[in-house]
Design a protein that fits this description.
Number of helices of chain A: 7
Helix content of chain A: 10-25%
Shape of chain A: globular
Oligomer: homotetramer
Largest interface: A-C, 45 and 45 residues
Strand content of chain A: 25-35%
CATH architecture of the domain at 10-120 and 188-227 in chain A: 3-Layer(aba) Sandwich
Radius of gyration of chain A: 19 Å
Order of helices and strands of chain A: EHHHEHEHEHEEEEEEEH
Distance between the termini of chain A: 51 Å
CATH class of the domain at 10-120 and 188-227 in chain A: Alpha Beta
Number of strands of chain A: 11
Largest sheet of chain A: 9 strands, mixed
Strand order of the largest sheet of chain A: 2-1-3-4-11-10-9-6-7
CATH topology of the domain at 10-120 and 188-227 in chain A: Rossmann fold
Chain lengths: 250, 250, 250, 250
């Protein structure tokens, strides 16, 4: 049996702040069941993917240790309430990523506590809510996250995010975006922290239907398969007995 | 359907110089059907892996365009006859990697024409055939190529390869070896060239039974699954029509 | 005038926990004026390097905003009292690195709050205080931090640190260590966070005279020159006016 | 004395194909003494930089072993006559880079034999000679090659180069370009091969005055200082005596 394929389902938890949808009629019209449900519904079409949702206003933000223990890949969308996410929950999620859980960070979650903790960087960027079009160029077409995509695809209206983006040099840059207003952005990039694979993906401002876009949905599904853990290893910093004979202390 | 899993078989071609086995009784005793057959037999145990062999002394070294067209992942072992490999065949293999074929380069093939062409580097190292033991430490336990491996494993006798190893900074270093005689070596590392994923793996001197080792076999099987292509894209450098209106030339 | 060389001095602050030296006669004998002073004295031999020291038990650990404002490169040694370092000071240092200050992290500071915050990783490893010898192999001889070093050098007695080391894939690995007891370790590696260059260097257990070693001193001096900032840019996440005409909102 | 600064001059050789300037009046008007002389003149303004030129139609393309031996950093511009560059000279330059010589590859030299040999990749891209404007965003403002630059700068008219660019994942991406027609491009990126530091920089189509632009000139000067060698080490693949006792062969 191959160690790299398995028939077990991938358990995805989609975390969403879930505030804009309740406060803003435009957002509610686009995502009547929340951004999380739009994403989860798209993922569930893939055989072998199981989804659950978790949101900010649930107890422990829906991210109990039991939920994280049963999560292979965590997707994170947040924006207006980053500061309301408990530091303790952030530490719990961080620890779980280091053990091996995959993590997909979306759009405005570039400034979420968990992404900033994983990156150790500013995670800052330029932004503009206006009438820009976004064109995503696939700069690494053979990366598993780009499987099945055309050479480029467009989102007719999106918030602009512009460079410099304050991230550690990515392991792989998969997408670079062009914006009408003259900016560029590394829109899809990967890192590893501990045993966890991390993917940041730019699109998804709440006032646009980006998570209903077929190419965006394909990216998210590919990323889930890519980020799936192969190990779960708790942090340890052990004293180690020598494996070879050592000289006797003089 | 997920774009990143498929039920199609992975077609592996194991290329072997196949000279030592015919000239040296020690090597023949360890690999009576050739190094290629030892590797292929281990890979065929994995459902969904199909193997074929190709060797230096076949016409076109067994690597016709038709064979390469039907190859997803090419494994390469060579040592004493690197210079006998035709430059034309090397260019053909190189082009096929750039299109997307995976490539696994073994042991003394660090000085093969194809590895040197892919790396653009010296690919040089220190070496010693003596009585060293090799201990391979898994420095990236969550990489798919390390799936199912212990934290370290040993080969009781192997040729020593020592740093500095003249390779481009790898995308991921997976193994670092410790040798009895005092050296260290980046024994497993990955790169991408064009659309092809490349893995170099150090063990496998012809006078030792390393390709019969269960951990070595697991690494090779994992690497085959990891290197499997998701695209095949021929090289092109096209003139492109603009996607947005351009100013009229003054 | 070249933009990359300058005649201004490099201002180095050497931060030391400075506890072992006061409590342990062995350590005091090796570093009578503290580890910080041994390092600073070696650096001051280089024209154009100015040093100051800062220690845990000073007010604000000696790291007031004014001191950090006047620091180009911060060196950090800590071990037994990581938890006594104030979270506020860690945030202040972190912010200063992101603006551009260079940072050199030594030995047991792999578990310091500041290194863990910069890396976002476990930073864990194996360790052993015994009778190991350490041999550092220079795997990237042309990196500026390796300038003037031989191909390898030895520290006759050091604490062992072993892989797996829980760090993000480094931008460059410069040193890999061999230990008598059978382990290996990525002993010198670089990253960037924000605008700051970061170098981790393994040697320097308090009971051994490693910071009196000529090769170790050369590494530290090289690292100071390498980490010197070329910019200081405060974190900002600004709204940006378009640089090109945007379509009018429909 | 610091090992990383020195008062010796940096010896730069600017290699130019030097054909367009002789055949095309537009190009000749922009670069009356050749592209090489425009670049060299800008570099010579920096104290400590010495320049010489070499061109395709000189014997050995001006790149004798003696010239390369006396070159610290080689700059390369070529376009219409890549195929006329002798394979032997390419091998000579390649070997010199691996020893430690810095290399700066400009614009259409993305398809030069030497860049393709160093990268091992397709080096292909999209292109268009039209009326695009190029805006270069500095995505890594603290890289030494970006010293002294604004956050972005523009070239009012340039040939378009678009992604996907067939290069190995760079060690650092410094510039990403936005083009009017809707494309993006990684316009400045670094790699290391052997002991040589390599920088690719996109601008410089022969029909535009890009090498007279102050920001472009600053990039080139910064790159020369960055690429300066700290070692010269010939390729070797030696048998190594053990540094520790080995078991006696049984």
């Amino acid at each position: 049996m191959s160690t790299t394929t398995t028939t077990a389902a991938i358990r995805v938890t989609v975390w969403n702040e879930y505030r804009h949808e309740k406060k803003n009629a435009t957002v509610a019209a686009i995502y009547p069941d929340g951004i999380h449900e739009a994403i989860a519904a798209a993922l569930r079409k893939h055989p072998g993917v199981e989804t659950r949702a978790a949101t900010l206003d649930e107890p422990e933000h829906g991210l109990t240790q039991a939920v994280l223990d049963a999560t292979d890949v965590l997707i994170w969308w947040g924006h207006m309430a980053h500061h309301e996410v408990s530091d303790d929950i952030v530490r719990r999620v961080h620890a779980r990523v280091l053990e091996g859980m995959g993590m997909i960070v979306l759009h405005s979650a570039h400034e979420s506590k968990i992404f900033m903790a994983l990156m150790g960087d500013t995670c800052s960027l330029k932004w503009r809510e206006a009438t820009d079009k976004e064109r995503l160029w696939v700069v690494n077409r053979s990366h598993p996250i780009a499987a099945g995509l055309p050479e480029h695809f467009e989102l007719p209206a999106e918030e602009m995010y512009g460079e410099p983006f304050g991230i550690p040099e990515p392991e792989h840059v998969i997408f670079i975006s062009w914006f009408t207003g003259g900016e560029v952005f590394r829109s899809g990039a990967t890192w590893q922290r501990g045993n966890g694979r991390i993917f940041y993906f730019r699109p998804g401002h709440e006032t646009y239907p980006s998570y209903h876009d077929a190419n965006v949905q394909r990216v998210l599904a590919n990323a889930v398969f890519w980020a799936r853990p192969t190990v779960r290893i708790p942090r340890a910093c052990p004293r180690a007995e020598p494996l070879e004979p050592l000289p006797v202390k003089g």
